Amino acid sequence: MTRHAPILSDPSPTLARVAKGERCAGCGICAGIAPKSIVMEIAPSGFARPVQGCNLRGSQEARIEACCPGLGQAAARAGEGQDPLWGPYREMKSARAADPGLRDEAPSGGALAAIARHLLASGRVDGVIQIVADPQSPSGARTALCESPDAVSSGIGALPAPSSPLQDLSDYLARSRRYAFIGKPCDAAALRALAWRDPQVARAFPVVLSFFCEGVAPAAGQTGLQPRCGVCADVSGLTADLSVADAAQGESFVLARTAVGAEILAQAEAAGVLEVSAADPAALRDAQPVLRARRRALFARLAALRLLARPIPRYHGLDLRACARQNPILDNLRSFAGTLRESLARPK
C-alpha cells in the first residue's frame, strides 16, 4: 500500500464525527472517493479504518458525508413483499447451485457464487468484485476482481474479517467497464448511495449483490465485533439487487429486491445454474435467530444511546419501530437498560 506524505492542515470533520462515535464500518467508500487523500489501514483495534494524509476538496467531503454508512442510511420502501425484519423485496426464493461440486464447496448451497459466475458467463458484467480470503493472513480478507466465471471464489459471504472493498473505487471507474459488486450490507449501502448521486458510478456498477451479515470480527489477535455492527440497522442487504441468506440443508434464501434482481434470478434459473423453489418467509425468520433478535432490539438500543447523547447513525425507512413491536415490551426494556449500562461503563 502506498503511503501519501502528510500534508494535512484541515482534517475531515466527517471522518472525525465517525471516529468519535466509533461508527466506521470499514467499507472504504471515503478512500474510494478521495484516493489521493485517504487510505485504509488496519488499526490497533483490528478493524479497517481510514487514515487521512491530505486535505479533502469540498466536493469530496460532501460526498463522503452523504454516502458514509457510519453516519446513516436510507432505504426505499418499494417492493411487492414487505417484511419489517428484512425489508422490501419483489420475490423470495429458496435456491442452490445446480453444479453439485459448487453446491458442496460453497456456503449455503453456493447460490451466490452461482449467480456471480452466471453474470460473467452471460456477459451481463465484465467483472465481479468480491471479498476473498487473504493468503498472506490466516484470518484476513482482501478484495478481488474476477473477470472469468472460474475465478469467482466459492467462499463468497463466508468471511467476517475486516475488508474495505470500496477503497479502490476510482481504479474500477477508470477502466470504463461494468461490474457486479458483492459486499456486506454496509458496503452495498455506501456504493448505492454514491451511485444515486453519480451516473458514472451507476453505469459502472449495474448489479449489486449482498448477503445477510452477523457482523465483522477483528483481525487476528483481537476479539469482539466491530462497534458499528452493534447499531447496524441493515443486516440483510436492503439496497442490493439480490440478497442471499443462509438456509438449512445446504440452500440459500434469495431475496430479489429490484427489477434487475428479479430478472437476474429468473435468468440464472432458466440457464440451469440455479435450482429454485418457493420459500416461506417464516422459515427465513426461523433460520436467522441472531439477526432477528438484533433487528428487534435495535430501536431500544438507539433510544438509550440517544438519551445519553451518544452519536448514532441516522436511519430512514428501515422499519425499526415495526421490528421493535415484534418484541415483548419487557425484552425492549431489557435492551434499553442493557445499552445504558454498557454505554455508561465506557468513556464518552
Automatic annotation (TrEMBL):
Q: Which GO terms describe its molecular function?
A: 7-hydroxymethyl chlorophyll a reductase activity
* Domain 4Fe-4S ferredoxin-type span(s) in chain numbering: 14-45
Q: Which residues form a coiled coil?
A: none
Alphabetical list of InterPro entries matching this protein: 4Fe4S_Fe-S-bd (IPR017896), Co_F420_Hydgase/DH_bsu_N (IPR007516), FRHB/FDHB/HCAR-like (IPR045220), FrhB_FdhB_C (IPR007525)
Q: Name one Pfam family in it.
A: FrhB_FdhB_N
Example GO BP: chlorophyll cycle
Q: Which PROSITE patterns match?
A: 4FE4S_FER_2
* Name listed for the protein in its UniProt record: 4Fe-4S ferredoxin-type domain-containing protein
**Which species is the source of this protein?**
Thioclava dalianensis
